Amino acid sequence: MSRQHSTQSHPSQDSQTASSHKYHPRQILLNLPSYRLLGSVAIIMVGLFWIGKLVTQKTDNQITKEEISQAASVSTPVAQLSKLANASKQVSENIPQKVAPVKPPPQVSPKNQEFVYNVKTLPPLNKSDRLETIVKSVARYVKSQGLSTNSLSVTLIDVNQNSIAGYRQYKGRYPASVVKLFWMVALNAKIQKGLIPRNKEVKTDLEKMILESNNDASSRSLDRITDTKSYGKRLRGSRLINWKKKRLSVNHFFRKADYKNIYVAQKTYPVYHANMNSPVGPDWQIREDNTKNPQRNKISTYQAARLMYEIVDGEAITPKYSKKMLGLLTRKLRSTPKAKLPSYPIGFNPIVGFLGQSLSADKVKIFASKGGWTTYCRLEVAYIESRDGKTRYILAVFGNNSAYAKNGRVFPRISRLVFNRMRKLP
């Protein structure tokens, strides 16, 4: 009763609902064949779009032609789209993602690297009683010539036997131009690291510094090593502090390699290109402004002999650089004991009055040395190798008073004494 009553009480609503169904879009799609056809075409077009996209995506795991063919042959558009959608998802998951390139670790600029000598310490050398006997003979000879043994230092190294002996060999003394041996090594170290250009000007100054002991070339070389310049006026405050730090870096270069208390930061004078007959401005200030006892260059015969040993042994910087430096240090000797002495630039002769004067090329294959001479000292470090190679040694002799400076015979006689004794060693 109630249901019948309800149906009959809303005849107009039922008629309105039937009328509205007639115009609903979904009803049209379901009832009209033409709209079904259009929908199917649209779905197929979307499917073809996905197929084209999948074909163009070339990856290691892309779908095969057979899979595309199978997807296209699915009976209903809905199934086709489902198959293609799954394939697309699989491909997209396997497409390599763009990964940000891995940045290499930052390289340390050569300018920021610590400037230190590559040889950290000298390999242990054996003490030798035979070498000790030779060194004592040198001291006795010096004393017999009326020269002070307190002002004498000697170091003797047998390169073949890796043995050593010395007399006051750890005493730091003013080295005069022997310091240029150390500047040569420091300069080449910076050239090797790319901190100083390998140009003609640098090469010319290096050669003049060693071959002629030229003070102007040496001054410019030290400026390059330490990135400093000499000034006529005194510096103050931070400028002086910065200048001192740079100039003293050449001391740090060797001290970090166990060259204890070495001091090689002072120029040799006169320096004509800077109009300096003696140190002024910061070059004087770096001497601690002490007139009575100024800070000066200071090297021991042990340190000079050690550096020469490292050059001869191929350890200074690299074997290639060591060979070049040894070549620069090599001097011409007279061909025979009675032959004329070789000629050298006017005002400079590394043979006359030094260790090479009493030696001759008929017995000595290599004589490489760096000497120094002022009105109050005579010094030299040399490497001597006999023709047969059985005798190879380094001899460093420092005589630091005016008597040594005036005596041009003592060094040649010391050299002949040592050579003859070393030749007799087994």
Helix amount, in percent? Answer: 40-55%
What is the straight-line distance between the termini?
Answer: 142 Å
- Count of the separate structural domains: 2
Structural class category = alpha+beta
Number of strands: 6
Spatial sequence of strands, sheet with the most strands: 1-3-2-6-5-4
The major sheet is characterized as: 6 strands, mixed
- CATH topology call of the largest domain: Beta-lactamase
Per-chain topology:
Elements: H1 2-8, H2 11-22, H3 25-31, H4 33-56, H5 65-72, H6 77-94, E1 126-127, H7 129-144, E2 152-158, E3 163-167, H8 179-192, H9 200-212, H10 215-226, H11 237-247, H12 249-255, H13 282-285, H14 301-312, H15 319-329, E4 364-374, E5 377-386, E6 392-399, H16 402-406, H17 410-424
Parallel strand pairs: 1-3
Antiparallel strand pairs: 2-3, 2-6, 4-5, 5-6
Helix pairs in contact: 3-4, 4-6, 7-17, 8-10, 9-10
Notes on the protein architecture:
It is a single chain. By secondary structure, the chain is α+β, with helices and mostly antiparallel strands. The chain has 17 helices and 6 strands. A 6-stranded mixed beta sheet has the order 1-3-2-6-5-4, with helices on both faces. Helix 7 (129-144) runs antiparallel to helix 17 (410-424), helix 8 (179-192) packs across helix 10 (215-226) and helix 9 (200-212) crosses helix 10 (215-226). The longest helix has 24 residues, at 33-56. The protein starts with a helix and ends with a helix. 33% of the residues are buried. Residues 1-32 and 58-85 have low confidence and may be disordered.
